[in-house]
Design brief:
Number of helices: 15
Structural class: alpha/beta
CATH superfamily: Aldolase class I
Bound molecules: S-adenosyl-L-homocysteine, iron/sulfur cluster
Oligomer: single chain
Radius of gyration: 19 Å
CATH topology: TIM Barrel
Order of helices and strands: HHHEEHEHEHEHHEEHEHEHHEHHEH
Shape: globular
Distance between the termini: 43 Å
CATH architecture: Alpha-Beta Barrel
Largest sheet: 8 strands, parallel
Helix content: 40-55%
């Protein structure tokens, strides 16, 4: 019924075609990967951009049912990095020509946290003369807070929708006002309106999710005109309510393969966006991120969190590199990107091409 060669020559897909592509394995899957690699090379080049990832706090006021650092997990040793240690990591990224950083943490909306980020952004701007691309990933916030951070120099924001199907979202989160799908969506829209390069994503092969949902997620990214996507496999964490479903889930390897298909298909559908090779891929396959780079991803986020705190930022099990310092991680990563056939874009911020074109259209 489906002709793979014909479908792969299209730039847009129907829902049925997406579900067919998502299920591909073996030789047919390799054809999909090959097509995505060609599109990547043509539109964004064989280039990988680095974002130094600083997981600066695991304190969170939410209770997402899948996440190891959810507020109700009292086995977590909570931390907020000192501003100086964060700035050390920022300097490391800057001196090593990463050109961009990601500041990620659990979600808090209190004034102390907001002011902490305000001060941090001011100091980062001083250290790097405004030359670093700064991504924030600290969840849902008031519009004026997003606006303030944007004015202080944050130019990208990552807020995964987690599941674009509201019913599924509600199965993955507690049923209360702190975990509202509508608010998450509204936040994403606000970020885009303010002018951030806006990134979102989903967890792949989570409990209750079916292929139909993933096809809808891909259509959601396109309809939303998103600039960046970070998506990776769901990985169970023992101290979370969703752990009980892990026996019903596809194997880790299957989740990994579906994640690669998601990335490859998205590269064909949205050739100019930035797609991150999620760290969760590496928790399943030691070279999982590099495989993603070969078939469409163009961003990698080396973890530069001071190693003392890494073991406490466990969103899921088997999180890689929790005991390595930034230098060790960098050396192995550089060799592996090289093996994947990409060049590392040292010193280039790597703004989303899609964003740049979206902004041009806005001005016209
Ligand atoms: N608190 C912020 C950012 C930190 S969480 C936020 O929620 O937006 C970053 C991402 O980790 C989440 O968006 C989620 O998609 C991912 N994550 C959390 N638990 C996970 C799990 N068990 N498996 C895979 N990804 C997970
Ligand atoms: Fe908190 Fe983010 Fe984890 Fe949800 S996914 S519990 S908001 S850190």
């Amino acid at each position: 019924m489906f002709n793979l060669t014909e479908i792969l020559n299209q730039a847009e897909f129907t829902k049925e075609e997406l579900m067919y592509l998502l299920a591909l394995r073996g030789d047919e899957q390799r054809k999909l990967f090959l097509r995505a690699a060609i599109i990547k090379e043509k539109f964004v080049g064989k280039k990988t951009y680095f974002r130094g990832l600083i997981e600066f706090s695991n304190i969170c006021h939410k209770n997402c049912l899948y996440c190891g650092i959810r507020a109700a997990n009292n086995k977590v040793n909570r931390y907020l990095l000192q501003k100086d240690s964060i700035l050390e990591a920022v300097k490391f990224a800057y001196n090593n020509k990463y050109a961009s950083i990601v500041l990620q943490a659990g979600e808090r909306e209190d004034d102390e946290f907001i002011n902490f980020i305000n001060d941090l952004l001011v100091d980062i701007a001083k250290i790097c003369n405004g030359e670093l691309g700064i991504t924030l990933s600290v969840g849902e916030q008031k519009t004026e807070v997003y606006k303030k951070w944007f004015d202080l120099g944050a130019n990208r924001y990552l807020l995964r929708i987690e599941a674009s199907n509201k019913d599924l979202y509600e199965k993955l989160h507690p049923n209360n006002s702190k975990h509202s799908f509508d608010r998450r969506l509204a936040c994403l829209k606000n970020l885009q309106k303010i002018g951030y390069q806006t990134g979102t994503g989903v967890m792949i092969s989570s409990p209750y999710q079916i292929l139909n949902d993933l096809a809808d997620d891909l259509l959601f990214f396109k309809a939303f005109d998103i600039d960046m996507v970070g998506m990776g496999p769901f990985i169970e964490h023992e101290q979370t309510p969703l752990f009980k479903h892990c026996k019903e889930l596809p194997s880790l390897n299957e989740r990994f393969l579906t994640s690669l298909n998601m990335i490859a298909i998205l590269r064909i559908m949205m050739p100019e966006i930035n797609i991150a090779a999620a760290t969760a891929l590496q928790a399943i396959d030691p070279v999982g991120r590099e495989k993603a780079i070969q078939l469409g991803a163009n961003v990698i986020m080396p973890n530069i969190t001071p190693s003392l705190n890494r073991k406490d930022y466990l969103l899921y099990e088997n999180k890689p590199c929790t005991d390595e310092g930034a230098d060790e991680c960098l050396d192995c990563l550089v060799a592996r990107i090289d093996m994947a056939g990409d060049e590392i874009a040292w010193g280039e911020q790597g703004n989303s091409l899609h964003y740049q074109n979206r902004m041009k259209k806005r001005k016209e």
